[in-house]
Queue: 3 jobs
Job 1
Amino acid sequence: MTRAVTIIGLLLTILIGAGTYWVSHEVERLEKRYADIQSDILAEQETIHVLQAEWSYLNNPERIERLSQQYLSLAQIDILQMASIDDLPENADQHLYRLDKFGEAVAFLPLPRARPGDLMYDEAADAMIIDAPSVAATAGGTQ
Amino acid sequence: MSFMRFSYWLRGDRPELGPDQRERLAIETARNRIFITGAMFIVGFTWITYGLVDASVLRQGNEPAVASGTDARELKTERADIVDRNGILLATDLPTNSLYADARVVKDPVESADMLLTALPDLDRDTLIRHLSSRKAFVWIRRNLTPEQQYEVNSLGVPGLNFQREERRVYPHGRLFSHVLGFTDIDNNGIAGAEREFDNELRINNGPLQLSVDTRVQYALEEEVESAMETYSAVGAAGLVMDVYTGEVIAMTSLPNFDPHRPGQAPADARFNRSTLGVYEMGSVFKLFNTAIALETGSANLNSVFDATEPLRVARFSIRDYHAENRWLTVPEILVHSSNIGSARMAMAFGGATQQKYLKKLGMLDKPEIELPEVGGPLVPNPWREINTMTIAFGHGIAVTPLQVVNGISTISNGGIHRPSTILKQDGAPAGERVFSRETSDLMRRLMRLVVTEGSGKNAEVAGYFLGGKTGTSEKLVNGRYVKNARMSTFVAAFPMQDPKYVVLVTLDEPKGTKKTYGFATAGWVSAPAVGKVVTRIAPLLGIEPANAKAPEIEQALQIELRKGERKLASF
């Protein structure tokens, strides 16, 4: 009895000792890893910081303008090229198709509006006033 | 005797009993003691075990699920970043390496210097040798090396040369914000502009400092102002864009500008902020303030007529009109024809004290309110005589900064509320002080629009954005004398006039007329078109929709009658 207790005690002591050692070692290892990750994070943060500065530099409006002139055939939007969604007729859905003389639906092709560049400013300003064509006028009709 | 008894009692011994009994008693006592000691140990160990289990196995309620290191470091630069209103980086600290020498370790100064010159050829040989032979523990050789330079110096392997990690202020947009941001010295101390004004905040570094400026607007403004300056061969120029409701400066430029990375190489003129530090006589732009005061005090209404039939003579001065009409003019006509005589008479109607009171409220008589160290105090007449009242009515005899004019025009057009100018992004409109009534502001909007549709600001017109403003041309004062043909041409405009959102100002310093302007260098010819171009470019960026001129609500908001002024007996 006494011997069994002693042996069990001895085993437990060894077990706990080894366990404690292992845990302590593991903690040390994790701490080292943690410190490594910390310094990696710091290095990454620094890289991000430098990249942010570069991103801002690359976004310099002067550069963007130069690149846009070089690669895009786009010019500054003229005021008369802008229209708001409110300028569109309310019942726009009904204009998507019409029935032709055989009673078949065909795509509705509205007459193109005069392009802003085709008109003088005051004419174009007039053209911006859109009188929505009434449904009655377009429903049966040809354009 | 009594001591002996106590001693027996303490031991549990009882000498009066027989030996057998004493023995049994002693064993029993010993057992009890072992039991008690054992129990105490058990309690102790249980307690420790509980503590151990509690600390390692059980989970506390407030314990975080993931361990957080107390030494979690975060990259913190010496100075905080500066960003624009959309979060675009305007100024930041980047790590660099600087080269220094420990002269005590340097073996052969001359040979080391020659070796070093192969990597950094622009260093001065004599200075370098002197530094390397100084036997000091620390001598700067070159600050902020590029990575290649660092590599080259490093590969030389000269003993005694070391690198010091430093941070250097970098402005990704270069010159674009030079006058707003200012610059720092080599030790990263802010010494001009926002860098200086917010030096402490930037050092504490609680996240980036957000300014009210918008990079895109700034670029559009700077480009247009620069092109106007080149076209008309002006010596300098200033441009400003302000939000009328918050007093935020959306863009601010002063040309010529400088490279904030090398401020020392720029001439003093380039480092001079014409928008906030330069004070100028603004000329006819002041007629707007004058008219607003007259309308506000009730000393004139839109139908009042003023005698502009002949030049006004006061003491030895004579006030003339540039575009003389030589007749009686109504208030709208005085603005449209930019009549000095009419404005002076209007000012006489409300008097010098009222003029001072309102100009004070508009902030024209104090230093401009803005978070920049470069602010110029206005030049104000002292004493304020009658003649001063008359000349100030059309913007002469008082010199203010362009920023103050923009702020004043914001006050007139935003419904009459004065708010200090700011370069910090605001969260909504800050509290302001009412200077003009809503009605006065509404009339002024119509009058400003009229100047662009009918008057001297025609060249600024941009279809769809309804600019309204005023031109101002004044001869430059040099050493107290007016110089002919050296002008300041200013155009200031708010848009869209039916509901003003922004004020734009362009001032050209000494513009010269070109063939295209028929030799004129007045504001209507040189500054007004520049403002028009700026508005065309920035309005879409600022989210202002072009409106239809025929829209009834706009016609109603801007309608004003330009009636010809006649001398009527009834007005006397």
Job 2
Amino acid sequence: MSTIAASHVAEAHGHGHEEATGWKKYIWSLDHKIIGLQYLFTSLGFLLVGGALALLLRWQLAYPSTQVMPNGDVGNPMSLPFINPQFYNALFTMHATVMVFLVVMPLLIGAFGNYLIPLKIGTGDMAFPLINELSYWFFLASGLIMLAGFFVAGGAAAGGWTSYAPLSTVAAYNGTKMGQTLWAAGIFINGLASIMGAFNYITTIVNMRAPGLGFFRLPLTVWALFITAFLLLLAVPVLSAAGAMLILDLNFGTSFFNPAKGGQPLLWQHLFWFFGHPEVYIMILPAMGMASDVLSIFSRKPIFGYKAMVFAMIAIGFLGFIVWGHHMFVSGMNLVLSAAFGVSTMVIAVPSAIKTFNWLGTIWGGSIRFTTAMLNALAFVAMFVIGGFSGIFMASTPVNIFVHHTYFIVAHFHYVLFGGSIFAIFASIYTWYPKMFGRMLDETLGKIHFALTFVFFNLCFFPMHNVGLGGMMRRIADPTAYEHLRSLQPINQFITLSAIGLGFSQLIFFWNFFRSLKHGQPAGKNPWQATTLEWTVDSPPGHGNFAVTPTVYHGPYEYSLPGHSRDFVMQNEPPAPDAGSGSPARRPVHAG
Amino acid sequence: MPSSLLLSTLSPLQAEIRQTSVWWLPRNVNMFGHEIDFIFYVILWITGITAVAVFSVMIYFIVKYRARPGVPAIHSHGNSALEVIWTTIPVFIFLALAIYGNEQWTQMRLRTPPADALPVAVVGEQFGWNVRYPGPDGKLAKMTASKVSKDNPFGIDPQDPDGRDDFTTYGELVFPVGRPVRLYLSSKDVIHAFYVPEFRLYQDMVPGRVYDFVWFKAEATGHFQLACNQLCGQGHYKMFGKLSVVPEPEYEAWAKGKAPATTAGSEANSSTPVAVAGR
């Protein structure tokens, strides 16, 4: 059987490189676990940067430095004078860029993908450890290059994270030639890092699964990362190419996107969104997979409709490539094309609905343990529902004419990306931190952090739906410049105060995270009594992960199986002679 | 009477400052807005009811199935009948929404504007609005995107007879109530967007293209703010224009007071309220 042959490959790789020691361990280690942790710490650092940018831009929206006061003075007395409109544009541009490319993607894919894939499929390392390590260094370099924009003449890129041409491609229009070039260079290098990670994940998952671990015995986390890797591999090169074209237009006189010289501004939008919409699913699929695992572990129940979950993710991955035009309903592209994209966009909501119902099915009849991880996973489901529903408004082409580019969409994607992805990331950190560091996070601090985050998140982002419906545009440095928006200003101030609450609540998490490295309760191998392979080895696992390549006999979610003394059956637990007492369909299949 | 109305229009325009329902949609004055609002409320009801149902079930499960000593979880891998049901129902709801939405989209964007529609050209630039109205002949000069330049924001042929009596303004739009208006949208430099929430109207204005498919009919008078809603540079946040909907006679009087554009340009001829009020 090919999986057995693969296991030899796996062992060869697991021991194919020596364990690095001392400080070298954190620079040159090829161990997927170290690389995963490098991604984790780096992106948590970038999370602080992105959060600080968010608070600055929220402050400007509540107390604009350009506001004309009733007495004629310019500048709200509470405002920060260094935030001028150009800097404000740079703030939201870099906030989004940092959060998308340096926080959510690397946390989900770089940190958890690297750390969990080999452990969950029972192998010693990734297929290409050196490329894996290069991927991290490219990622770090891309982040530093993008942030360097703040320190060059003209400041950082200020054309929005979407960098629509020709604003982004003509220096006379944007005034940030250097910053915009650094942005595009960063995007290009970041793309290379993603591509290196993606083919590594695909190769590893296809070839290096432990004996007996068929595709339909893979945990949903692995399935999600597997599908995500395909999305990355197909979508990211398009963005990298577009970024290179942007650099050429901006610096070397080409005019791919400049209509004054025969270029096409809409070409940029098609290229960007051909990447950008799969990107949305790149940032939510791994979150869905990991949240599924967390819900199952702490409900002590198998995933409800495992195959439906897998097929729903495959459907999302496929449909994700034919909906990009819904970002362009009002761009003036062919109007019949808009109608077609409207239909495909409505259709892609179906697999998301299926997943939501199956998550509810998973907690139904469970024995739910309200750990911090579980609370975050439940919040993920609830917030994803709200974010999904607000998406339906924009999928409707006529309603899109009204709500496009208002705060309604800002609310929408923060419900999906913060309410969805970030809550799932917190759930995952609470679940797998004990495996990564051998110690538990503090549950009391965790629950305080969760409660504050959940409350402030909703206070911050829900009213954005309302100001959006009220007609407030996104990306304006001063809402008080508009007479029809002035009566919304108290809501903007309320949102800002909530954002500050949300931001500072995260300090509790960071405190818990770093304090528990030394002072957390020892975790043991399997603190959550979970079933998958990573819980069969030490916390943290040694170099090479598995002393002996495990053989898998069970699906990934055998919780509360009747007739067993424990309420879980490890995937590698050899079947007891009388295990066939249950229904024959559930009898574990012996690996060939 | 008309002159006092005229003055009231041309005194510095005040957009409506909403005092009531600031948490909700502004009033709608566009004939197409009713359909948009209708679909909005249909989706709001569908998602609202579904959200209440989903969250009720979720909270019920969370309470009922909390871990209790001696009560094991049930072992279930799912239910195929349920999967079919909760796949099929969303498919029909979403397809119905898509089909109905497309129907309205077709009405709004693909239907030929009425012949009596008032043509108005709006060309964005960093950071303002060039506006061109037809003169007494009711016809605008033909716009050619490739001819748009710094000195010729509308991309017209100076010899075009239709353009001789056109007049221009800068950042000031006045529409007659009850008469269809057809917009010709373009941009001189970067992408801008024509956005008026009370009109439920958003359209990008892409340089190198002239969009002629946007039309609407204002059903009520009032003063509004036109906003650029596509990030266009550091002055983006204050790229707004004045937009008024007035009775037809008042519009005619306002149009009469405008001098025809002698060149292709616009800024030089844009009337200020002071100049016209002193007429």
Job 3
Amino acid sequence: MHNPLYRNKTRSIFIIGLLLVGLLYVEFFDPKDQNIINGITVFGTYLSLFGIIISYLQIKSVSSINLETKLVIEKSLQRMNQLALVADLSKATMMIREIQEQFEHANYRIALARMKDLKVILIQTKHSEICILKTGLISFNKELEELFTDIINLNDYISGTKKKQPNTSKINKNLEILSTTLTEIESKLKNIKHDS
Amino acid sequence: MIAENFRLLIEKLKYKIAKSEAIWAKTSRDEEFKLHMGKVTILTDCWYDEVSFNKKVDLVILNEDGEKIDGIMISKGEEDFELLSELHTLAKQSYYKIDETFKSIFEELDSNKVIGEKKKHELDDLI
């Protein structure tokens, strides 16, 4: 609407319309009927109709601007979420390395605490819309389940509910598989191309 | 005595295993097996408790976020131990495919084929 070209076009249409209405008025009204009252009626009607059309076009233009703004905001939010997700996945991979080190030194309590932190990050990742839409999470869910049971087993061992230690080499192996999958997802997310 | 919903769950799981329609997996504990279905995971474990010097068996239900939402633990000698222990044994048999293994062994034994494999070099036995 604020485009000068658009404004000039509107002005031209208005003038042409005005001339056309003037011509029709002169052509179809008897000279005795061509008085101020009838002139005001005819030109007033034309002005009202023109005003209504202009208002309609303005409303339409504002709504399309709103829609475009909404799309741009949504796209920016999605990109920000994606960046946050990549950061979380990277953090999770580092955390897995730390947990594996704790297992090597038999620091099971610390390992368990870090595994619980990892679980929180991964649950958030699992529920992330971008992650679900763009990377596919079937294998990730399976690995997450392994993490859940490993946490419960380690917890049972530390709390003394079950005295026998769980198989730490299997837990390490599960963590390694999880780490590989997370790295794959991270790389997929990094390589997603955005339009515009 | 275990709650009625757990009794029903055990019976239904046993029925599903009997029909070979349950896929159990092993966890990081030697005798623990898990079954994932929909949004829940079911765990069953059997171990010797060194504190009470007794055998124990449990059944745990986890939600989709890995939280324990319910579970039962029964010691040997208590009511319903056999019921839960039987489920654990069936889960174990299902995981290791014990029935299929026995079936293939019997098929081999009942056939007229020579069973066992000859070593490539007889000298291997002497080394």
